[in-house]
Amino acid sequence: MLALAVVLPLAGCATDSGPPDAAPSASGSSAVGGTATAAPEVRAQLRVDGDIRQYLLHRPPAPAADGDGPKPLLIAFHGRGADAAELRAKTRLERAATARGMLVAFPEGLGHGWGAGAQVTKQRPDPALDVRFTEALIEHLVRTERADPDQVYVAGFSNGGSMALRMAAERPALLAGAASVSGQLPTGSAAVEPSGPVPVMVVYGADDPVRPLAGLPSPPPDPEEPILPTRSARDSAAAFAAAGGAGEPVTREEKGYDRTVWRLGKDAHGGDRRSGGTVQLLVVDDAGHTWPGSTVPPPEGFGPVSKDLDATDTILDFFTDPGPGH
User: Fold this and answer.
1) Listing from the earlier edge strand, what are the strands of the sheet with 103-107?
2) What is the pTM of this model?
């Protein structure tokens, strides 16, 4: 599966259309080793299932002392029609995560989108392709960057949020946590069902005009790529709660949003990782199809951006401690 891995310096561009360089030697020294001399930010390529897939990689600062142990890893999926650089700018995840000592990878979707559902389409005849790509990327970064396989997280926005939920649903043992902003679980012919326990946070705008809080069971046709039907944000979170053996939820009002928390069963947090995990739904007041706390203006028609919640810090805090919110 991992036939080719190439790392290229990032020169401030969103894409790299040049031909791939030769693969670095598995035994020789290179920038992918995660050493003190490695560049903090690179554009990398990985061949999976015959496709050359690209991603941006951000490394945390080198440790002050000789203690470069395994590092938590966050995979962050951009939205439909966007790319890795756009998500990076909108969320600033790379700043907040690397400050916490985390590796962050922003993969690029094929056709600027993700196969977040199980439906076969003309554009995505193999709907499991992106699941395998994500698995391969995690395996590659564990091997080359000393990513900690017990601290792998996924997050995403919109279609990328649904992709993060798909990974959590279908590969719960691979992840220590997942988060989605403005993304829901696909339903209907594209349905994805959670298959095991994993901490999950769903952040959703109460006034989302693009994909409503109540779900989009009958999406409008799209000539470029079918829009997947989805269940509601609450039903998406509740499905993960049920798969994790959670009890009844508790909802409380917080400044600018409502937080609903399901406590997972005592053995539910990633199997043998850590007990006390939760599934959480944050419904943000006066927010649209946007990333709360972002300073980047959203596209026209996407609705307002909440300033009462910083989704980036909230998600990373959840990954650090997926128990009940404070």
Assistant:
1) 4-9, 41-48, 51-58, 103-107, 71-77, 147-157, 177-181, 200-205, 278-284, 257-263, 250-254
2) 0.87
